[in-house]
Design brief:
Helicase, Ruva Protein, domain 3; 2 domains; two-stranded antiparallel ribbon; 8 helices; 5 strands
Length: about 170
């Protein structure tokens, strides 16, 4: 059970054992426990500078949708890892499929907020970080990013993205 929990969460062996002990062996609760722990780890790393990273591209099947994303991290060592590159690809695929208009709530212009109100449903449709993640819709993109921060051990930020669709103006 520790191995399965480790595979699903990306946490270390001791963290998985502790999570299972804390939750009396309940796998789902242990997974939730580790996710929450990962979110707190991500919050601790949030203030660190992210000056390294990469620009990744993704062309959707049929070559009618393309995405560019700038994903930043703290060191070039992490930026060169397969895990970081896969993270960029996963988020790019999500952008291609879900077509977010903004990175976060802070990017939504005031006049749109006034028009739409402060509705959670609206923000979860148009803000990338608040959308349910394509590969696991129980997580938001922000939660997925936070779990990657906990696994990798560095602050990671989506700096910006652009999505193109053939025939769209």
């Amino acid at each position: 059970m520790v191995k399965k929990l480790r595979d699903m969460s990306g946490a270390g062996v001791m963290s998985c054992k502790k999570a299972l002990a804390e939750t009396d062996g309940d796998f789902e609760k242990a997974l939730r426990f580790l996710r929450e722990k990962g979110l707190s780890l991500a919050a601790k790393k949030a203030g660190r500078d992210t000056r390294e990273g990469l620009i990744s591209s993704y062309i959707h099947f049929g070559s009618k949708i393309g995405v560019l994303i700038e994903l930043n991290c703290e060191t070039d060592f992490v930026a060169k890892t397969d895990e970081f590159k896969q993270l960029a690809k996963d988020i790019s695929m999500h952008i291609a499929w879900n077509n977010p208009q903004f990175l976060s709530r802070d990017d939504v212009p005031g006049e749109i907020v006034e028009q739409e109100g402060n509705r959670e449903k609206y923000f979860s449709q148009v803000c990338l970080l608040e959308q349910p993640f394509l590969k696991d819709n129980e997580l938001s993109v922000n939660d997925y990013l936070s779990s990657a921060i906990a696994r990798i051990g560095e602050n990671i930020k989506i700096r910006r993205f652009v999505r193109y669709q053939l025939g769209e103006e």
